[in-house]
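Need a sequence for this fold. Nothing fancy.
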C-alpha cells in the first residue's frame, strides 16, 4: 500500500505533496513501482497536527482519487475517520476505507461501510491523534491491542460488515512508546490469531528514528525497509509505505528466502531457477 499524502502540513512530506497534480503523479509512480493499493489521506494525524475541516479534507482528497481512478484499476483506500469524506470518496471511485479510529469517531461510518459493501481497515489507537503520545500506558500491550481489535471486528460484524471485508492493524506509533511498538512488532503472530488479514504501517515513523538515534524522517529509509521485511516475515499481509519501489524489492527477496523459491513461481525448487 503506497501512501499518497495530500496534506501541506504532513510531517515527512511537509510542503511537498499538497497540490493534487503532485499527489496524482506520486500515485501513478507508486503503481508502476508495484503498489497494489494506494492510500489517499487529506488530514495529518501526527501528534500536534491541526485538525482539518470537512470541506478542506474533501477539497484535498476528492480530485486525487478521481484522477487516480480515471487512470488506473488499482484499489484505492481513503484514509479518513469521517463518514462524509468516506462517502464522497467512494462516490468518486475509492474502494476501501482506512479508519484510524476503527469505526469509533464517527457513529455513521459503520453503516456506510456495511451499505457500500467495501473493505474496512480497523486500526488500534490509544487516545486521539493530538494527544496520543503524551503518556501511553498499557498493562500488556499485545493482549490489549489484540482484544481491542477482536472487539472492533465483532462490532463491525454486528453493524453488517462481513468478516471477509475486515483488515486489522495494531496502529504502530498511535499512542505507543518505542517499547510498545517493538512488543507489537515482535508478536504479530498473536494479532494473526484474531483471524483477519493484518496491515502494518512502520514507514519512516518516529520509533525508527529512536532506534537510529533521532534521525529525521528523511534518514529512515533503511530502518523502514528492515521493519517492513521483519513485519512481512512475521505474517503482515499489507505494508503501508512511502517508499514503494524499495519496499517491494526488499520484501521480494525476503519472501523468496522464506518460501525457498520465487513468489510467482511454481514447481520443484531443485530444478527451477
Ligand atoms: C513520516 C510521515 C513518518 C508520516 C511518519 C508518518 C497508519 C495509518 C498513518 C498506520 C493505518 C504516519 C493514516 C502516520 N499511519 N493508517 N495512517 N496504519 N491503517 N506517519 O500505521 O504515516 S499516518
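Here you go.
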Amino acid at each position: 500500500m503506497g501512501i499518497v499524502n495530500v496534506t501541506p502540513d504532513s510531517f515527512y512530506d511537509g510542503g511537498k505533496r499538497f497540490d493534487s497534480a503532485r499527489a496524482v503523479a506520486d500515485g501513478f509512480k507508486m503503481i508502476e513501482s508495484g503498489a497494489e493499493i494506494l492510500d489517499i489521506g487529506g488530514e495529518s494525524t501526527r501528534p500536534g497536527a491541526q485538525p482539518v475541516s470537512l470541506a478542506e479534507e474533501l477539497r484535498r482528497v476528492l480530485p486525487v482519487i478521481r484522477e487516480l481512478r480515471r487512470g488506473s484499476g488499482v484499489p484505492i483506500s481513503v484514509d479518513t475517520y469521517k463518514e462524509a469524506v468516506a462517502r464522497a470518496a467512494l462516490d468518486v471511485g475509492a474502494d476501501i476505507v482506512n479508519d484510524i479510529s476503527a469505526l469509533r469517531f464517527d457513529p455513521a461510518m459503520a453503516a456506510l461501510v456495511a451499505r457500500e459493501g467495501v473493505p474496512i481497515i480497523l486500526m488500534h489507537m490509544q487516545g486521539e491523534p493530538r494527544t496520543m503520545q503524551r503518556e501511553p500506558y498499557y498493562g500488556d500491550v499485545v493482549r490489549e491491542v489484540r482484544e481491542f481489535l477482536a472487539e472492533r471486528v465483532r462490532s463491525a460484524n454486528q453493524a453488517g460488515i462481513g468478516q471477509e471485508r475486515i483488515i486489522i492493524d495494531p496502529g504502530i506509533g498511535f499512542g505507543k512508546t518505542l517499547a510498545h511498538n517493538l512488543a507489537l512488532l515482535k508478536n504479530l503472530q498473536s494479532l494473526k490469531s484474531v483471524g483477519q488479514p493484518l496491515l502494518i504501517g512502520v514507514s519512516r515513523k518516529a520509533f525508527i528514528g529512536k532506534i537510529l538515534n533521532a534521525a529525521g524522517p528523511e534518514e529512515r529509509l533503511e530502518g523502514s525497509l528492515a521493519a517492513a521485511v521483519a513485519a512481512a516475515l512475521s505474517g503482515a499481509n499489507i505494508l503501508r509505505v512511502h517508499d514503494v519501489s524499495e519496499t517491494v524489492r526488499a520484501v521480494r527477496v525476503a519472501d523468496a528466502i522464506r518460501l525457498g523459491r520465487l513468489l510467482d513461481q511454481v514447481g520443484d525448487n531443485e530444478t527451477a531457477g
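For context: The longest strand covers residues 2-5.
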